[in-house]
Amino acid sequence: MSEPMTAGADGGIAAIAEAPLQGMITLRGDLSDDTIRAAVKSATGQKVPERGMINTADGVGVCWMSPDELLILCAHGDVPDKLHQLQESLSRVHALAVNVSDARAGFILSGPHARDVLAKLCPVDLAPDRFAFGQLRRTRLAQVPAAFWMLGEDRFHLICFRSQKQYVSDVLTVSAQPGSAVNVWSKTISGT
Amino acid sequence: MSTRLATGGRLLNKGQPLQFTFNGKRLRGFEGDTLASALLANDEMLVGRSFKYHRPRGIVASGAEEPNGLVNLGDEGTFEPNQRVTTTELFEGLTAQSQNHWPSLDFDIGAINTHLSRFLPAGFYYKMFIHPRPLWKHVYEPFIRQSAGLGRAPKARDADTYEHFHFFCDVMVIGGGVAGLQAAKTAALTGAKVLLVEQSAHWGGRGPVDGGTVDGKPVDNFVDEIVAELDAMPNVTLRKRLMGAGVYDHGYVLGYEQLRDHAPETPGPRHRLWRIRAGHIVTATGAIERPLSFAGNDIPGVMLASAVRDYVANYGVSAGDRTVVVTNNDDAYLTAFALVNAGLRVPAILDARVLAEDSAAMAEAKALGIRVMMGHGIAKVAGGKRVTGVGICSQAGEGAVLEEIACDAVAMSGGWSPVVHLWSHCGGKLVWDEAQAHFRPDVDKAPTGAAGEAFATPAGAAAGEMRLADVLTSADQAGKAAAKAVGFKPTRVKPPVGETPEEAPMQPVWLMPQGAGPALRGKAWLDYQNDVKVSDVQLAAQEGFESVEHAKRYTTLGMATDQGKLSNINGLATLAGSLGSSIPEVGTTTFRPPYTPISMGAIAGEARGEVFQPIRRTPMHDWHAANGAEWEPVGHWRRPYAYVRAGESTHDAVMRETKNTREHLGLLDASTLGKLIVKGPDAGRFLDMLYTNMMSTLKPGKCRYGLMCSENGFLMDDGVVARIDEDTFLCHTTTGGAERIHQHMEEWLQTEWWDWQVYVANVTEQYAQVAVVGPNARTALEKLGGMDISKEALGFMEWADGELAGFKVRVYRISFSGELSYEIAVDAGQGQAFWDALMVVGHDLGVMPYGTEALHILRAEKGFIMIGDETDGTVIPQDLGLQWAISKKKDDYLGKRAQERSHMTDPERWKLVGLETLSGAVLPDGAYAVGEGANANGQRTMIGRVTSSYHSPNLGKGIAMGLVLHGPDRMGEVLEFPGTEGATYKARIVNPVFYDRDGEKADV
């Protein structure tokens, strides 16, 4: 992987940093199937999440991506083993597991106005009571596909396609420019 | 003259004087001024020239409806034309220039048009410039273009930034006047999430100026209190300087927030376009006062009565020392009172109505010593660039002047029209209110959502409720209705009670005096900005433009930047009068967003400069850039076209790369090719349907080139398919095809073959893929070491997993060049390191990277087709001699039936051949071959066209492919291809495989 990039102008309304390497496996299958659910649990220690949710701890977990697709998160170096383990345990069911770790780039977006930055680019309700820890959203970020979830209050993990890393970094930087806080989520920051 | 008063000005901070310039003149205003109030304070009443006649134009309004006060604002990177002075907040150092005048605002040559107005009637352009036809292009249009437009177009790059913002709420209230505030509060009390937006910098709308009491307190106090209450509620978002610009389907609203227009020194974006999803919308957009149509109503100094009192109350500015008020209603009396209370003179109130007894307002006026003249109006206004007096007439008569009154301002009021724009944008209907002579929202015909439910409710003056008490009641009801509509339970809190003095009914006046003759009608303006007069609309009606939409376009009424906010109703009434029909029968024109013009920057948002378009970069992008790559856009990807060395032309580089690849070793970054994993028990069956070939018979470890057609039989993509295991295939697509073909597969799986067990995953970006091409390719890989890539171990069209120089790789032995060639996939994160390793081992083997143009030449030398060159959406595989790739054993595949239709099997279809110029020159790409005779349109008969054409350095001549009528049957024939600039190329039809026809080079 190339050198981690940090983006965002001085005085920007949120900090933008490239996320550390993250192992990712796309798993497609019938999410109600017991074999698949057991395989996911065994590979990640987490249950298959409900629609729009992510179950994760310390960078290992599982994201709901669509009615028949999950994204398994693990350490980048663990992917071959996890993939092998999944393929073994799923050999008797119709399922597809592939490594997509290098197909993606990731960013950590943080700060009290991180929500503002995302809401400028994504057609998502980012009000704190509508998007919270535990949720995952696949969406459009300006002109490209992206997904994000929360790592904690005011901290987002965002993934996009690798080829669009520079664009996403640039567009996050533009949207986090100094003086561009929207001040809409918190009355204490806002004032009118 | 207009001037600043010693006292008054509730919005001013007189402790903060500001300097600004207008047409180069240095002027002073205060913090809190609009540019309009500051100009008036400096006696700059004349602010522009009208569009057609270049008539002097003064400020007429005090808000968004202003038609005249448009200026060029700022300069260089912050220059913007057509900025309304009434909504532009004054800031230190503001610079403004008036528009549409030459050589100066005061003395304008174009004003001659006003004397020619007899010759410039409605529809003048249509009538005049239609004949003779050729003159339009060469004479008329250039002339009209020069005189068109009000402001100048910006020349410098916009120095500011812009952004979008997505927001969601249960109830959105548009308009922060008394009605909007109350509706927001009522809705918020139910617990709904409420967004309240106000286009100006102040809450309360007209309330504080127009007076009255709420629960016994002045309106000012009510506004302060309710704003504080709302601000304290966690479920309410309040935004000023944010205009509800447009209402669209399903409660989608565009909001236009002006962040720095009033404070350009602050950092951040200038405008923010809010993209709002609202559960329910309350339109509390207020009302706009109508002008009266009398001769000379456009002379600077004639203003709306409400604007005159706004300037006094809000900004401590008087429009004139002596102001004549002319009205058809009681509301305008407030203006007379405000003026008199400010110590100014009101020589007369001309009231067109004849009432049996004085209204309360009339009585009050008389008590203040103001002369009230019932049944009277203005015959004409005296003055040129400024009002000097009015001639008074009887409203019932034809305009005989009874008396002349000297004055320097006229405050007119023709009644009030609700702002129904936002209600109407998405289909809300209107009803004609006879008593108030205006259109107001028809609450039974609201804009509707997906389930047919109303998603908007009007409130206050925007609903046609003009009295403070009714405004508050209506707002409360709207707030409750909105909350209820989104599932909240309204509370039983009583709304506050508003009180204002009793008013007598207004009487509609569409022309003053009602019997005005042609001379007066020709000077009675309806649309100030576009110069449309009562006489123009009447002429349009007379000439048969009876539909309001036609009359609008014919006369240009309401088509200026103000979109007829002042002129529409008066124009409709005039049209109705001319047609002898009623106003509701004539109807209104369509209200379209935005409410007032919004900046192009706000619409573009962040998408400019570096992030105008997402550029896709391969893992080796930076290396390419550092090594002279000239880029070719392929989809959103950037691929190296060629790596140009110092002192070398692009063409030289392409020739060098092409030759070197055939003679030594070339590296191509093939990472952009699409890679789709197709897996499942039905994967083979699925691919048999998608490709024209048989894929299910492919053995694991083998590759096969496949063609993919649309249902209509046309070739849409091609690529090499590798069978990974019994259940799994990897399908390569073209660079531009990855997402499209992925979607194509999902569509068939989800809609047609939903019961087939197949999953698809797009893994294009997981891999960096490098084509290692040329006679030294195997040696290079052997030097990397780690796996057996001998001819025996890895034959042509086979693949293997393994390791090369410690990299985990998948090696495909496939060739798009005709050379010995391997395409090697590594994890994208390893792509650059692997490329570097190849460059190192290739050093002694003559390695050079090559770009897409060399790739094209190499494949053309071999007669390989390229999707997008040989295909254009109308070409089928059979046209390209690809029958060998179409399975005859299969019952079906996508496109099979279509390819059996008569047009597709027609022997007259043009077929692929090679073309060689007799001179060795390069045929122009896309050139047509001409045959004998002409077609039905008298054009030369076409018998073929060039689809690919290059200079081949390996063959030392121009080579081309083309589609030619009966082409394969005409080998050796010479065709003529007319080129550009008179040249004609002669080319011989040859076999499309120019190089190594037996495929010996790849099979080593």
> Helix- and strand-based class of chain B?
alpha+beta
Looking at CATH, which topology of the domain at 162-287 and 418-499 in chain B would you report? Answer: FAD/NAD(P)-binding domain
Uncertain regions spanning at least 5 consecutive residues of chain B? none
- Give the DSSP E fraction of chain A (strand runs of 2 or more residues): 25-35%
Helix share bin of chain A: 10-25%
- Which word captures the global form of chain A? elongated
- β-sheet strand percentage of chain B: 25-35%
What's the domain count of chain A?
2
Q: Termini distance of chain A? A: 46 Å
- Outline the low-pLDDT stretches of chain A: 188-192
* Largest sheet features of chain A: 6 strands, antiparallel
Domain SoxA A3 (chain B): 522-605
Keywords (chain B): Oxidoreductase
InterPro entries (chain B): 2Fe-2S-bd_N (IPR042204), FAD/NAD-bd_sf (IPR036188), FAD/NAD-binding_dom (IPR023753), GcvT/YgfZ/DmdA (IPR028896), GcvT/YgfZ_C (IPR029043), GcvT_C (IPR013977), GCVT_N (IPR006222), Sarcosine_oxidase_asu (IPR006277)
GO molecular function, one term (chain B): sarcosine oxidase activity
